């Protein structure tokens, strides 16, 4: 299920980025700034949790930055993150899923989560912030893309419309 969930996450992020690119930045500068900040936060949190999964030092001291990168830099980082997580899933042995990982959150507090919990958090976290971006897209008069599992399944597996599940 995680494989399909991360494939859906990648698909929804691509659609979200396409919609953000369609916003008239001259007419809605505050909206674009907000959307970039949300994307920056998503990227940073995913990079932080990637380091925790790998047992590496945290690459960021906080979950956002004073200077927000350009949209295309954020898009590249988010695409790279999605590719990394998909690859990470493929390499996990069954015993690793419930391994407890201890780490320090950006606020300095200690944390402990299993790999499964971290992966679930990464999925949920990006979904929450894409919802905020969707609201900003509405305000900028750009239709926000549907990013539900049902739309993903039926767009990527059209045979489902005919009642056929994939093999």
Automatic annotation (TrEMBL):
Q: Which UniProt keywords apply?
A: Metal-binding
Record InterPro entries: DinB (IPR007837), DinB/YfiT-like (IPR034660)
Which of this chain's residues are annotated to bind a divalent metal cation?
41, 125, 129
**Which molecular function term from Gene Ontology is one that the record holds?**
metal ion binding
Similarity comment: Belongs to the DinB family.
Looking up PANTHER family in the UniProt record yields: PROTEIN DINB, SLR1116 PROTEIN
Put simply, this protein is called: Damage-inducible protein
Q: Which organism is it from?
A: Stenotrophomonas daejeonensis
Classification from the root reads: Bacteria, Pseudomonadati, Pseudomonadota, Gammaproteobacteria, Lysobacterales
